[in-house]
Design brief:
This protein is an all-alpha fold. The chain has helices at about 15-20, 25-40, 50-60, 70-80.
């Protein structure tokens, strides 16, 4: 069942939610899991900007960099989870 009420930190929010699309379950949860794993593996947020409008734009584009120390397998898995 779709959920309309969203409680989130914008840093972990899927692009769909930032665009006002209702919560759709697994796809949105997969994105958030990918962001959590990115933070655990890389030690930083994939999307950062002090201005919320710019932060939302970065998240919506899905453009992030992965540090060189991350293994190719981990990079592939992160891309699978947090892919637009």
């Amino acid at each position: 069942m779709p959920v309309w009420l969203v409680c989130r930190s914008p840093h972990y929010a899927a692009p769909e939610l930032l665009q006002g699309i209702k919560y759709s379950g697994p796809e949105v949860d997969r994105w958030s899991l990918g962001i959590l794993l990115y933070v655990m593996i890389c030690g930083k947020q994939p999307f950062k900007h002090p201005d919320m409008k710019m932060l939302y734009a970065k998240i919506t584009k899905g453009e992030y960099e992965v540090p060189d120390h991350v293994s190719p397998g981990a990079v592939s898995f992160l891309f699978f989870l947090a892919f637009i």
